Amino acid sequence: MTTTRTGTKPAAKEYDRAAMASMVGTTVEWYDFFIYAQAAALIFADLFFKPMGSAGQIVSYVTVGISFVFRPLGAIVAGYLGDRLGRKRVLVATLAMMGAATVLIGALPTYASIGIWAPILLILLRIVQGFSTGGEWGGAALLAVEHAPTKRRGFFGAFVQMGVPLGMLLATGVLALCTFTLTDEQFTTWGWRVPFLLSVVLIGVGFYIRSKVSESPVFAELKERRTESNTPIRTLFKKHPKQVVLAALSFIGTNGNGYMVIGGFIVAYATKTYGLGKTELLIATLASAVTWGVFTMIGAYWSDRRGRTTVMNVGNLAMILFAVPFFLLIDTGNLGWIYVAMILFSVGLGLSYGPQPALFAELFPASIRYSGASISYAVGTIFGGAFAPTVAQWLLGKTGGTLAISIYLALLAAVSFVATMLIKDRSGRDLMV
Fold first, then answer.
1. Membrane-spanning residues where (predicted)?
2. How far apart are CA 409 and CA 70, in angstroms?
3. Taking Cα atoms as reference points, which of 425, 424, 28, 373 lies closest to residue 216?
4. Staple partner for 332: which of 44, 46, 337, 405, CB 3.0–4.6 Å?
């Protein structure tokens, strides 16, 4: 069991409560992201960027990535406050900002109604989403891992990661229901707003669950001893720059490959290239989400026994080896093979993704851990998935095929493989150090 130096020990139900509180926030985050990414891939070019003509689709994909540019700023601010004031307070604030921006996107007038102000407001709301998300993951990961028993940190930390498949499941389910029950005209006119507005329900649930969880026992002891850092950001970059760089690079493979699934590119590509239905492809994404979730928990559970870096590199290797076969299956244009591609692709994603919260938490000292985990994660998303759909669309346009995209994804996973090998596995370390 994880025991702080004061001898206090979280009750068993507090482990579960912290894990649920962490998971619900990341579920909202990824629900928000996924509905935006799919809308950007399918209709936002016409609704917000129509005057740009054929370049509108590229710009629409850029708005998916632009929020990631502001994640490091959010990570810096949230990391500072989280290391000074506590994990729980910051997580409540990030959830409120993130949810409000999503609901407002659902109520936003289009270019046809207010002209140039429509894309400007859309981009501003994406920036707010990026800023708030920059501080969400790090705090959620620490809340789960710092409450967890020492030998089960990987398992409990993975509940944070389950926000991705759960957010995908919820968002894809809502989008599939909308595209199935509404005509294309209805969906384009008003139906696309429904998934954004429904996020208010998730936000309410998130606030309720997070209000019930206690502060991280590690931070509580830091506060009691008065050993929290006054300058966590400066200390982080002065004493631990190598850890930040390696942690960020260890994530770009999973992040970049994952955004092929959740970033809307595959759905848009298969729809426009092979004339397949949106609903059928969204259901394929649902199957991918389930697989991703299952192997995320398997990877996390396995990391508690074999070490974080070992399991993450099994996932990285799987992504490297499957990068080319993935698009070969997609390019059959056959829905059955696309299902196979999406499901197999998610195996490596889950194995590399599950151990990440525990790895990041164990990598940094307690007094600067929120800053270290958040900034590393945010930087990794910029160089990994932030513009992966944009890069993929550009490579497709330049080469006329998908082989270049496969090579790009394999290179991202290879970088993560090397970076993960260079990280010293600290599984089971004392989190108060």
1. 30-49, 61-81, 90-108, 114-134, 155-178, 190-209, 244-269, 281-302, 314-330, 336-354, 375-396, 402-423
2. 23
3. 373
4. 337
